[in-house]
Amino acid sequence: MAGSKIEQKPFYQILKRKITILILVVSFFPMILTTGIIFYRFNRTYTAKIAAHISELVQKHTQNIDTFLLEKLGNIRYLARHIENTETLPTDFLRHQLELLKTEYKDVFTDLGLVDENGIQFAYEGPFRLENADYSRADWFKKAREKSFYISDVFAGLRGHPHFIIAVKIRSKGSEGLLRATINFTAFNSLVENIHIGKTGMAFIINSQGQLQTQTDLRIDPSIMASMASREGYKDHKTMFSRKQDLSGENYLYVTSMLENIDWLMVYRQNVKDAFRDLWKTQVLALGLFAIGCIAILSVAFTLPRNIVALILQADKKSEVMNKQVVESGKLATIGELAAGIAHEINNPVAIMVEEAGWIEDLLEDEDLKGSKNWDEFKRALKQINTQGRRCKEITHKLLSFARKTDSTVNDVQVNDSITEIVSLTAQMAKYNNVTIETDLNQGIPYIRISPSELQQVILNLINNAIDAMEKTGGTIKIETKVSKLEKNNVVISISDDGPGIPKNNLTRIFDPFFTTKAVGKGTGLGLSICYGIIQKMGGKIDVHSQVGTGSRFRIWIPFQTAEIDPATQGS
Fold first, then answer.
1. Residues 6+ apart with CB under 8 A from 121
2. How is the chain split into domains, by residue range?
3. Is the N or the C terminus of the chain less surrounded, counting Cβ atoms within 10 Å?
4. Which of 24, 23, 39 is nearest to 290 (CA)?
């Protein structure tokens, strides 16, 4: 096939590849650049938003704990000022004040105690038996004596369960001592436990040694807590962010903030996957949309060039067909000119031969040769020369007439006359191939304004095809003309034969350019294609009906101007 050969040309492969590359570059470069910038900016914005949200939350809870401790420190300081001026017994004073504190704060304060300068608790009010308890060796007692007030780390102490102490210096009867209050660890711990974000976000407090000061269910690597205990970097930042990996290999986000009234750190920890879950969902969605866009671009990049190249191929095929038709038309024109020249050159000597034969006949009449035994033979020969000479002259006249009509000038044409002329021109070739041409030309067929040479070319081509099909077996070609009843204002020309017929598979392609079933060198495959194009240009149509072993029939419909039509001329 010519189409497959064209498709195999490197030019079209290179063209398709270049168009594909151009589409990919023009589409992917801005798409990747834009997506990358948006992705990067969105990631930074969302990360900053998450950091700001967590930072604000941690700072808020840090302030709440600071406020809690400052309020309780204020309560103890207030009691310390009053105990210095009261005449009430210390034990009664502590009992009364503890009742007031429990009324106001419920279980926040566990007990109260007075400790002398030697570390002996000489007055106590609370649920434990801690009268005369010796705190002289306690770490909190040593540190409390050096400051006006002191808030201890969480420790078990003498009572055996976690608690921490708020101690304030007092002066009574010329000696210094401490007023100490135990803060309920459960109440304090609940303040921190209430900090939750997502599924894994929880908070806890550590001291300067990295030790937990609140209860937590989290399993935290001690080395991580020790690394966070450093107080460097908090002068300019209220909170600090870090990402650390624990022993299980999970990555966690840590946010720390320092408390003001005690050397403790509020620590917030959340799994990175949990913290940025919404961000990653958005990123996955964006990547999904990006992938869909890539698939769409790829489909267009590999489909569009194929379609474009297919259109170019189709245009090139049509151009190639037209070029070949032009070449063939040029060949036909050249052949027509050559035939006209040959016919003209033959016509002159034939005319001389006929004239000379007439002259000889006249001479024979003048001479007294009637008695010759060859007189009849002379007469017969001279008659045959005249007959065949006139026939040659008629043939050359028709050939000249046909050659002169190779242009496409439009004239009023009588279809029957054109058919008669073509039949007489092809009669000898038909006779040579044992083919008989019969005509049934209805009189009264109207004139049709078309190109005479083009109509003759169509009819001649169809007759020649029929003769070629029956060259081995012989047969009959029947040509009919009628005015169509089905197609209004159309003349129908029917050319049928009883030859071998056309296979069904070939009927759909019979008008395709270059399609031929003839042997190599006997046909170009353009004849019927040219006929089809000529009839289409005339505004008519052509069809074919054929059956193998029965024959073929071509019908041509050509429109004409409305006029009075004889009903006897009408047919299908």
1. 113, 114, 115, 130, 131, 132, 133, 134, 135, 180
2. 1-275, 405-571
3. N
4. 39
Write down the H helix ranges in 415-509. Answer: 415-432, 452-469, 504-507
The answer to whether the CB of 560 falls within 8 A of the CB of 489 is yes
How many residues comprise the chain? 572
pLDDT digits (tens, 9 = 90+) for 85-135: 777 888 899 999 999 999 998 889 999 999 999 999 999 999 988 889 999
Strand ranges (E), 506-550: 541-547
> Which phi and psi angles does 479 have, rounded to 5°?
-115, 125
Query: What's the rounded Cα separation, in Å, for the pair 468 and 465?
Result: 5
C-alpha–C-alpha distance, residues 212 and 266, integer Å? 10
- Higher local confidence (pLDDT), 405 or 293: 293
| Per-residue model confidence as pLDDT tens digits over 223-251 | 777 777 776 666 555 788 888 888 778 88
Strands (E), 485-530: 490-497
H or E segment to which residue 476 belongs: strand 475-484
Please write the tens of the pLDDT for every residue from 398-421: 566 555 544 567 888 888 888 888
**Superfamily for domain range 1-275:** PAS domain (3.30.450.20)
> Is 164 within 8 Å of 153 (Cβ atoms)?
yes
Which of 202, 335, 353 has the alpha carbon at shortest distance from 268?
202
Q: At what angle do helices 185-193 and 10-83 cross, to 10 degrees?
A: 160
Q: Considering only CA atoms, which of 409, 406, 420, 413 is closest in space to residue 340?
A: 406
Longest dimension (CA), the chain: 196
DSSP summary character for residue 230: -
Q: pTM for this one?
A: 0.50
Are 124 and 152 contacting, i.e. CB atoms less than 8 angstroms apart?
A: no
Distances (CA, A) of 131 to 89, 93, 112, 120, 159: 15, 15, 11, 9, 13
At 337 the pLDDT is 63
In order of 20, 76, 110, 503, the CA distances from 182 in angstroms are 79, 10, 5, 112
> Worst-scoring range by mean pLDDT, 4-8, 319-323, 370-374?
4-8
**CATH class of the domain whose range is 405-571:** alpha beta
